[in-house]
Amino acid sequence: CAKARPPAVPSEYEVATFDYLGIGENKSLNTSKELMSIESNAEAAAAVALQLKAENLVIYGTSFGTTVGTVTAAKLSTSNRNGLKGVILEGVIAG
């Protein structure tokens, strides 16, 4: 969903970006409570990351995405995801 590569991520890393449902580039019509939960968004992001089979994956979360990014990274680390190389959190929100 990003219009440009996040500058904090070096070019040797693969990037897939997401916007929270109903926000930014992801203005979904289906914004039910279940689909808008942090858990649901993290599950979707982890599923995409696993499908990509990225070897140098960095989770990059900004603003509210820092919470989703953190949960996504945790899900990937418990599923033996060898391609996860790091997590970058920018503009972290308190939760």
Report how far apart the termini are: 24 Å
Count of helical stretches: 2
The description of the largest β-sheet is: 2 strands, parallel
Order of strands across the main sheet: 1-2
Strand share of the residues? 5-15%
Helix content: 25-40%
Quick rundown:
With 95 residues, the chain is of the alpha+beta class.
Characterize the structure shown.
This protein has 95 residues and is α+β, with helices and mostly antiparallel strands. The protein is 31% helix and 14% strand. It has a two-stranded parallel sheet with strand order 1-2. Helix 1 crosses helix 2. The radius of gyration is 13 Å and the shape is globular. It starts with 37 loop residues before the first helix and ends in a 5-residue tail after the last strand. The relative contact order is 0.20. The mean pLDDT is 76.
List the helices and strands and how they pair.
Blueprint: H1 38-52, E1 57-62, H2 65-78, E2 84-90
Parallel strand pairs: 1-2
Summarize this structure as a short list of keywords or feature phrases:
95 residues, alpha+beta, two-stranded parallel sheet, 31% helix, globular
